[in-house]
Amino acid sequence: MALREIRILGARVLREPAVPVEDVTDETRRLIGDMFDTMYDAGGIGLAAPQVGVSRRVLIVDVPEEEEKRHVHALVNPVIVEAGRTTDKATEGCLSIPGLEETVTRPVRVTVEGLSPDGEPVRIEAEGLLARALQHEVDHLDGILFIDRLSPLKRNMLLRKWRKSRRGGK
Ligand code: NI
What we know:
single chain, alpha+beta, 7 strands
C-alpha cells in the first residue's frame, strides 16, 4: 500500500462526476488500501477516490463514535437510498480544502447502499457523524464539495480568505 497525493480545490478531478466501478477487482482493493493509508496519514475521517485523482465511485470512512467504537467502511458505487427529514448542523472540513471549516446542514439519518471491497452488497443505516461523513463523501463522487452546501455569500467570503491564506505560503 502507498500514500497517494491528495488533490486540492482547483483540481479538475474534484469537480467531475466519478465513474461507476464495473467490477470490484484487486485494483479496486489496492485503491481502497491506498486511500486508507492516505486518509490516516492526513488525519481525516473520510476520503473519496477523486480526492486522490481517481475518478471512480469509491469512498472510505473511519468515524469515531464513542469510547473505542469506530465505524470503518469502504464502499464501491455507494448510493444514498434514503434520507431522513430531520437535519442538524455541524462543522465540516475537507482534506481537499485544508484549513477551511464551516457549519453545514445535512439530514441526521441516511441509508446508503453499495458494494463492499469483496463486491458484496452492503447496506448501512447511519446517523450522526457517520451519516454526515457518508453524505460528504458521496457528494465528492458527484463533484460536490461541502462549500457548495453553504450560501453563495458565505462560500465566497470563505474562499477569498482561504485563497489569501494559501498565497501567504504554508
Ligand atoms: Ni471532503
